[in-house]
Each structure stands twice: as structure tokens, then as C-alpha cells.
Amino acid sequence: MKQHLIILLLVCATTFQLRAQDDDMLPQIGKPCPDFMLKDLKNYPKKIVSLKDFAGKWLVLDFWTAGCASCIASFPKLNELQKQYQDKVQFILVGKDDRHIRPLYSSIVKRYQLQLAAAFDTVIFKQFDIGAVPHLIIVDPQGVVRAVTLNITKAHLDDFINGKNPQLPVTYGIKQSAMAKKQQVKRDIPLLIQGNGGNDSAFVYRSVLLPWKRSMGQMIAFHFTNDLIHNNRYRTVGSNLEMLYQMAYGDTVSTEPYMVHNNYGKFARKSVLEIADSSAFDHDWATGEGVYAYELILNKNFKRSTDDFRRMMRNDLENYFQFEVKVENRMMPYWRLEANKDAVSRLKTKGGKSVTDYKKDRVDLVNTPVSGLINAIWYADPYGPPVVDCTGINGNIDIHYNAISIDFEDIKRALLQKGLSLVKDRKIMEVVVVRDRVK
Q: CB neighbours of 57 closer than 8 A, spacing ≥ 6?
């Protein structure tokens, strides 16, 4: 068994070594050109040449076949370049030898008065893995391959000679083309899935909208935040459609440390639905029906603002759900948080370390602004009418009360005992209005 294993390892190692040797025999950009030999050279002082004969001079090997019309069409241009750069560059036409190519070459030479060096061979075609033509190999004076391409111009030559590195299209040999074909994207698999087209981070822009499952957990981003500018990413997991529209069209940035939105008291948290069928807005967190996960990512090299992210999210929602959505000014309900005279003086902070402690059944706030209290009330009904501070209290407050955090009526009761009241009113506010798209 050990002998079989050793033999297998030796075979694998030998195969790997042979493949490495094969790769070394192929011209590769940035590496020394493999040596070669051309015999019976036409229009050149020497009949037999190898790579060393061109040391100190740029070398352009132009591979062609009798059936390549574009190759032949380029010969007059190459002939002129050879005349202009005869001291710096050597062009050699390398034709794939067959019974047609030599007579054809003789006719071409007479027709265009060519003075280009030429050779006919099949060995170098196999050695350099030449498949499709035109196929040009450009070698610098130090013998390093600088391009494997389809064409070369005077501007390219000038760049090479002047030490620049022009970006020419790359052409591949037979083996390399076969490998490239294996790497082509598959039609039945999404891009970047299972390595289709590259790894899963090789994108410039990506957005994903998918049905939510309870196993995904919830990570609801109520507001776009400033870290988007740095991370180029926005994600919300476990949001219904109305939440998604509020995120895309509502307030832009949350205000730290309290989750009180920028348009505080100016933006309605409940959308207005003016649509024939509102079933798309039905949702059930128990089953996941009508609940989504959404993510938008840009490559870190493409910096965008939060407004740009919101615009891209809007486009995604419009493309999929097909509603027309606008932000309009409407008369909307809101809650006025009012305080009696005794409460104003009684709630004034006594100072000390700031404390914001929100429990399921109790709130403790010490030396915090009224916005801390607004935040606690907001938690009970985040998409209901907004709560607006009308207390007239300046500065921080201390307040402690017992109430179920998600029971709005219980919170109203507890606040009333502290001299605070929530009064329903109406005012002009911005609101997200959803309509059916006009066809």
C-alpha cells in the first residue's frame, strides 16, 4: 500500500512539474521570452535566428496564416513602422507553414513592396501555443515579453520605447483560451454565486431583496445612518413593505444618542396608501409573509452619500413593487407632549451622571433631555403619529415611571401621574404617499 502511495505521489509531482515546464515555455507578459529558433529567414541578414540575436532591440513577432485577411491587411502598416524604427525595432512575420502560404506571401511582397523579415514554421506555433491569429508577441530589449496582443500602432511603439506601459488587449493561446472558456460565466447560475464570474466580493454595486425568515433574526434599520458614508453598506432584516418605504423616503439620518429622527415633528411615521389593492402591505411576523430582508452595497472605491443610497433603494423598490411613491405635505395627526406648571419645575434635573435606562416595564431617566423621554414613548408605537415636545422644558430632566414599554395607553397613564399629558392634534407634515402606477 505504501509503495502504491509513493508511486501516486511521484506521478502527481511529475505531472505538476511538466505542467509548470509547459507554462514556462509559453510567452507570458512580464516574464522572459522563451528561447526559439527560426530558420530560412527571408529579407534578413541571417538565415537562422534565435532570441539572443535581438538583444538590445525591440522585437515584434507577428504570427499569421494564409486564411487571415486582417493579418495580411496590417502588413503595409507594419512595413512602414519597420522603416521608421529600423534601428530600434525588428519586425518578423511568422507564417504557419503550409502549401498555400509561401506562394501567397510572394504575391503579397510584390503587391505591397514589403521589406519585412519573414519566416515560415510550424514548430514555433506549437511551442508558443499559437491558435487564433493575428497574434503578436512584443519583446523588449532585455528579452522580457511586454505584450501578447492583436495589433500594434505607432503610438503603442512610442509608449514602449519611452518607458511607458500601454494597455493592449491580450490574445491567448490554445491552452489559455480553453482555460478562459472554462472560466466564462455560466448562464444558469447568478453572477458571483458559486464563483460564477469571480468571488462574491468582486462587484461594484449590489442590492438584494429577499423574503424574510424568522431564522434570519431581525435587524431593523429605522433610519439611514452616517456610517453608510464610510462602510458603503445599508441593510435591514425583518422589515415590512411600509417600513422599507419609510426607510427609503422618510428621514435621512438618526440623531445620536437618541433615536429621534431629523424631521422631528415634521414627518409622519405612517404612510398614506391610495391604492386599489393594499395586500402587498399586509404582513405577518409569525409566518414571515410580507416581510423582507434588503441589503445595498457599493464597492468601497465608490463613495456615496446617504442621499445616494436612499435614491438607489427607491429605484429598487419601484422596480419590484411597481408603486408610485412621493413625499407630500398633508394634514396629519400627532401627539402633543404637554407639561403642567408643577411638572416643569419638578422634572428639572438635579444633575449627576446621565442615565437612560429603558426596561420592559419601567423607565429611568437622569439628567437627560426631553428627547430621551420622547424616545421611550416612540418605542411603543414607532409608526404611529409622532410625539412632539410641547412641554416648554429647557434643559435636562429626571423622570422615573412604571409602564409597559409597548402599551401606549399605559404610558399615557404613567406620564399623567408625573404632570405630563399626551394630547392628540393635527398639523401639516410631510408624509409618504403610495399610489398605483399610472399605465
A: 88, 89, 90, 141
